[in-house]
Design brief:
2 domains; binds S-adenosylmethionine; 11 helices; elongated; alpha/beta; 7-stranded mixed beta sheet; Rossmann fold; VC0802-like; 14 strands
Length: 386
């Protein structure tokens, strides 16, 4: 049976996500703001959860229609066969999102859905599920527009950027799905030399190593769909076995990371160790201004400090032109991708921007600036600074 799904993702990553969904056999793929709609059987839903590196979660759409007021919302929710989708012993939570929703309170609309679910269970089963706002088994999503309502059941559980390998963080780590998406936007592919000279806790390095060794990002974690009545353990085992069979042997990879601070590097090393990549990726402590290209060509990716320890505005202003010089002098032939929330950065780095992509790191609006370091070229070209 074909079902409808929606996978939200960080804004700016909709295209890479739609490519990923195409590869796992999704159909009717439609890119929207902040996510991608698709259709498919349960195998596609399970694979989207297991394989997508850019999705934040996968929602199973169980209703789409129109509403006028809170009573409609209650009636619509009451009409749905909740008891066929999960057992009364499961705890629930209702999340509401509204865009141009005319209702006074989204919370109240959410309560209507919760009441309808409980009343329906009481009628059909004689008892109702408990609410757990902190760690529910089943998350119900309500999405309201001016007069449209969609109701979905979450199939992911914890957000998909949580890969299931314990990750320690230091200051301002980037989310795993944003890091993976940036690698995709940069056109990085396994085998292309990759350097993150401001690696912090090592998120880009780990995502790139996972991609290189063909390791499904969700292979070590559990998912919300395991609590739904439709869940087939047999299908899930088959999908996981196929994923594990496709993993490649651990090997040294052309992936390098460095960071100015020893404690950041220690975190990166622990995370690489936990992920099983300690012998695949090379890391060292270094100031970005002292490093050289580890290969003739490659991709340099960095999430620049901004407003944290070293992110003092004056210090950064001094760093940018030096970084520009470094890229020109030592990274000819490389493409650099710099993520920053500092929209003034391009003026100070004094390099020709070849592409800028708006992205969101959590709630923080950022840009990914692309610099193509053509051999001997960037210095003399007309400088486009913003
Ligand atoms: C925004 S954080 C990067 C976070 C990283 N992407 C992660 O996911 O953990 C910026 C990093 O730049 C490092 N850094 C700051 N100044 C540096 C410099 N001059 N050379 C190298 N690294 C530097 C900081 O220690 C910090 O770890």
């Amino acid at each position: 049976m074909t079902e409808k799904f929606f996978a939200p993702c960080p804004r700016g990553l909709e295209r890479p996500l739609s490519d990923e969904l195409g590869l796992i056999g999704a159909s009717e793929i439609v890119v929207d703001d902040g996510g991608v709609h698709f259709s498919g059987g349960w195998d596609v839903c399970l694979k989207a959860n297991l394989y997508s590196r850019t999705a934040s979660r996968v929602l199973w759409q169980v209703f789409s229609g129109r509403y006028a007021d809170e009573k409609d919302i209650y009636d619509i929710a009451y009409g749905l066969p909740w008891n066929e989708w999960f057992d009364v012993s499961k705890t629930i939570r209702v999340n509401m999102v509204g865009i141009k929703c005319p209702l006074k309170s989204l919370n109240f609309a959410g309560l209507k859905i919760k009441d309808a679910i409980c009343d329906k269970f009481r009628k059909v089963k004689g008892s109702r599920p408990d609410v757990d706002t902190h760690d529910p088994d089943i998350m119900v999503h309500g999405f309201l527009t001016t007069d449209g309502i969609k109701i979905s059941l979450d199939t992911s559980g914890e957000a998909l950027f949580k890969r299931g390998v314990r990750q320690f963080t230091n200051t301002a780590p980037i989310r795993e799905n944003l890091a993976a998406g940036i690698l995709m936007l940069a056109g990085w592919k396994p085998g292309i030399p990759l350097l993150d000279p401001m690696c912090g806790s090592g998120t880009f390095l780990i995502e790139a190593a996972q991609m290189s060794l063909n390791i499904a990002p969700g292979i070590s974690r559990s998912f919300g769909f395991e609590k739904l009545a439709v869940f087939s353990k047999k299908l899930w085992e088959e999908i996981k076995i196929e994923a594990v069979n496709n993993e490649l042997e651990e090997t040294a990879l052309p992936i390098w990371g460095s960071d100015l601070y020893g404690d950041a590097l220690k975190t990166a090393m622990i995370n690489l160790e936990n992920a099983g990549f300690a012998d695949c990726v090379s890391v060292k402590q270094a100031n970005i201004l002292d490093i050289s290209a580890p290969a003739e060509k490659g991709i340099l990716v960095a999430n620049l400090p901004y407003g944290e320890r070293m992110g003092d505005v004056e210090e950064l202003k001094q760093l940018y032109p030096q970084l520009g010089d470094l890229l020109k002098k030592r990274f000819a032939g490389w493409n650099a991708y710099l993520l920053t929330a500092d929209l003034e950065m391009p003026k100070s780095i004094r390099l020709q921007v070849s592409k800028r992509t708006p992205l969101f790191n959590g709630a923080l609006e950022c840009r990914l600036f692309e610099y193509r370091m053509v051999e001997g070229g960037n210095r003399t070209k007309k400088v486009e600074t913003h």
